[in-house]
Design goal:
This protein is α/β, with parallel strands linked by helices and 217 residues long. The chain is built from nine helices and eight strands. It has helices spanning 13-24, 31-40, 44-55, 61-72, 90-102, 117-125, 165-179, 181-189, 201-216, and strands at 2-6, 27-30, 81-84, 107-114, 127-130, 136-138, 157-158, 192-196. The relative contact order is 0.19. The protein binds adenosine monophosphate.
């Protein structure tokens, strides 16, 4: 069972994916995380990616498709992937279908987390991540709790460089123009379900679990 978790920046895709990984033994494939790994290498390629991330635009389909094929082709992840932050335009959605076909797989469900824009901005600007356990918190809605790994003394709460108000406006515009139309593509295939992403985190997870149990049985 491969899933796509869909929604605008700040919808809670990462938070919910982490819960699904634990509950259903899945592998989270976040293209944003893969790109940030490249940025952290601080080489020429990483610096080029960093510029694009800070601009709020999309990285080229060619770069993304290469990153994705590396994972889809790995037998360890076969039929156990949650695609988080991908596909982000129609071309990527079509490439994903082709890639999955090539490796004898398919998407079972696309979950769309629906959240109003005014809430998204607040969620993104207040987002911080624990440097030790990588858990994401929100200083406004979900204040950081003790780090489950080592307590709080040794950790830093990191903020993403593209989680600032200027870049967010651009990221939301990019979402509306390029990513939102992908929903229609999946709706026509009959595999898309909406979930209200403005509920409590645990209420959203419960609905997600029920949906997934439904397609597994
Ligand atoms: P995210 O962590 O999903 O919010 O992604 C952060 C940034 O990485 C986005 O604003 C884009 O610049 C870039 N990015 C992530 N996923 C993709 C993708 N599938 N296609 C193109 N660019 C992406």
């Amino acid at each position: 069972m491969n899933l796509v978790i869909f929604g605008p920046p700040g919808a809670g895709k990462g938070t919910q994916s982490a819960k699904l990984v634990k509950e259903f033994n899945l592998f989270q494939l976040s293209t944003g995380d893969l790109l940030r790994d490249e940025v952290s290498k601080k080489n020429e390629f990483g610096n080029k990616i960093d510029e694009i991330l800070k601009s709020g635009e999309l990285v080229s389909d060619e770069i993304i498709n290469n990153l994705i094929e590396n994972k889809i082709s790995n037998p360890q992840y076969k039929n156990q992937i949650i695609f988080d932050g991908f596909p982000r335009n129609l071309e990527q959605a079509k490439s994903l279908d082709n890639l999955l076909k090539k490796y004898n797989q398919e998407i079972s469900l696309v979950i769309n987390l629906k959240v109003d824009n005014r809430i998204l901005v607040k969620r993104i600007t207040c987002r911080v991540t624990c440097s030790l356990c990588s858990k994401t918190f929100n200083t406004f809605f979900d204040p950081p709790k003790t780090c489950e790994l080592k307590g709080c003394e040794q950790r830093k709460l990191n903020k993403r460089s593209d989680d600032n108000e200027t870049t967010i406006v651009k990221r939301l515009k990019t979402y509306d123009e390029k990513t939102f139309p992908v929903l229609d593509y999946y709706q026509k295939k009959g595999i898309m379900k909406n979930i209200d992403g403005m509920q409590e985190i645990s209420a959203i997870s419960e609905q997600l679990f029920t949906l997934i149990q439904g397609i597994r049985s």
